[in-house]
Amino acid sequence: MTIKAAITSASTTSWIDHLPEAALLVDAGRDLIIAANSAMGRLVGTDRQSLIGTPCTHLFTDQRPQLIAFTEETLFRSHGWSRDFILQHRDGRNVELEISSSRVGEAESQSLLLLLRDRRQLRTLRERHDANHYHRGGLLEWRRVEELFKDMERENQLILHAVGEGIYGVDAEGRTTFANPAAERMLGWRIDELMGRVIHRVVHHSHEDGSIFPLKECPIYAAFRDASVKRVGEDWFWRKDGTGFPVEYTSTPIIDNGHPVGAVVVFRDISARLETQKELQKALEEVETLKHRLEMENAYLQEELSAEYHFHEILGQSDAIKAIVRRIGMVAPTDANVLITGESGTGKELIARAIHQSSSRRDRPLIRVNCAAIPKDLFESEFFGHVKGAFTGAVSDRVGRFELADGGTLFLDEVGEIPLELQGKLLRVLQDQQFERVGENHTRAVDVRVIAATNRDLKTEVRDKNFREDLYFRLNVFPIESVPLRRRIEDIPILAQEFLNRACQKFNRPPLALREPDVETLKAYPWPGNVRELENVIERQVITADGRLDLDLQGPDSVARHTLEPMPPARHFDGELMTEHELRELETHNLRRALKISGGRVFGDDGAAALLGVKPTTLSSRLKKLKIEPRQFQERDL
């Protein structure tokens, strides 16, 4: 009789039903249960007849790939064994299985016999067997087991004592069941003081800020409530003395017969780590600040290098220049604030640079701020910087000029243009060397020397309530007057020749020399634009020169015709002293003449400011002070 015939015969059901374990006879090729015994029916909670003729894979719906692999292994090896399968009982519970398999029949046969065992029942049987074994072993065996457990408990205690992390256990009600010495040391409580107490109310009752931490939100209790491990990276525990400390911890549930009965909490003090992180963050912020500052300084220095200065050293041999050099030598080694006064174009910035280069701050930058060019609303941000979001358009943090000049010198050009409402904040920085960025409460300290310059009469501004008196006295610690060119005419030949050499080199022209008539012509002019105007005139002469200079004031094509047009005889400057009234009349006449030539335009390459060699803002201020309206000259041209 063949194996196939034996399988299909009625006797199959008889012999498989006598097996002591749940059994299935399966046709692997057709995925069909051929026979099942009563034990198999009890295992799944149904009768065995309902299993016969159904696919075997229906019993292992979620493990179909594993079942196929297991079947192929059995067919290849003729037997198999696995503890990886789970089937579902009719009442919904999962049954963990241990399966033994064997091929039935010849080598080509695809019939398999599967013996299925409930792993939980196997454990129960083994435990019962062990208990019977110990019981039969008598008192000696029990003593041996007791000693064994004592040794295990002692080893566990040694481990708990040796562990550096704090460990404590809680029952299902959150009451403390044990704690190791590290937990006692960190929390400041003895184990006997914690035993039986709800530990959340002792060490975990509040957040770091003191706000209540409800017990129902505690991750430690959630561990055995959800039967899942909870890991918390940063939290807060409280000591017995009322102080707190940051912790990280893991709460692992204790499961008994499928039910959570408590949890084990392992925690560590992370104060040192957080402090290290804060120090690292602070260091990174300082590095970023220094990086940003260096970038700003580099950009500023690049701007300074690319700018064209009118002169790089103080030129002249007049008594006025010698006096200025002496005063520079006196104040440079100190940190005293300096106020440089004088008309536009006299070289106030040159004096400031000479003071800085002769001081102990020469290795730090000289930061220049043109107060006349800063919009009123941006003064505070330009001086003190701002933080991101401080106002519309503040898309990132910005370092102010005071912070940029820390350790160096800050040159406030046209200081008289600073708005009155900001002068108080400037005074505070000069007094305390402290400031806050716009939008920030953090006070920053700086070490800055201030050199200010102005073409205004600040005493008059103070009297007219346009400039704070206390700020004036704070700036005017050491005054230096930058003498106008008309009061040091003996320096004109030196300056003119220096500017001539530079202009020839700049415009790639052959060298030119000043003639005696040229020098006399230059000396005869009062130079309201001072040294800057002189340089502009020389540069225009070089541009138009045809082999030699032509400073003929009467020539119709002379570039200097308008600029060097002589004054009326009554006002001609012949080297003698002039009264203040005469100087004011002379200045007014020259300004009106420049406006007439430019058609009333102040700004632009052909504007009056360019003709005079002064800044447009300076010229506008001067016209306003003299009550000269440029539009009058525009209407006259029409």
Total of helices:
24
Report the uncertain regions.
1-10, 305-312, 552-575
Total discrete domains: 4
* Number of β-strand runs: 20
CATH architecture classification of the largest domain: 3-Layer(aba) Sandwich
Helix fraction bin: 40-55%
Q: Taking Cα atoms only, what radius of gyration do you get, to the nearest Å?
A: 49 Å
CATH topology group of the largest domain? Rossmann fold
Strand content: 15-25%
Outline type: elongated
Fold blueprint:
Layout: H1 3-8, H2 11-17, E1 22-27, E2 32-36, H3 38-44, H4 64-77, E3 79-82, E4 86-88, E5 94-104, E6 111-118, H5 119-162, E7 166-171, E8 176-179, H6 181-187, H7 191-194, H8 199-203, H9 219-226, E9 230-238, E10 244-256, E11 259-269, H10 271-306, H11 319-331, E12 338-341, H12 348-357, E13 366-370, H13 379-384, E14 385-386, E15 398-399, H14 401-404, E16 409-413, H15 420-432, E17 434-436, E18 443-445, E19 449-454, H16 458-463, H17 469-475, E20 478-481, H18 492-506, H19 516-524, H20 530-544, H21 580-598, H22 608-612, H23 616-626, H24 631-637
Parallel strand pairs: 12-19, 12-20, 13-16, 16-19
Antiparallel strand pairs: 1-2, 1-6, 3-5, 4-5, 5-6, 7-8, 7-11, 9-10, 10-11, 14-15, 17-18
How would you summarize this macromolecular structure in one to three sentences?
This protein has 638 residues and is of the alpha+beta class.
Descriptive key words:
single chain, 638 residues, alpha+beta, Beta-Lactamase, Rossmann fold, 4 domains, six-stranded antiparallel β-sheet, 24 helices, 20 strands, elongated, disordered N terminus
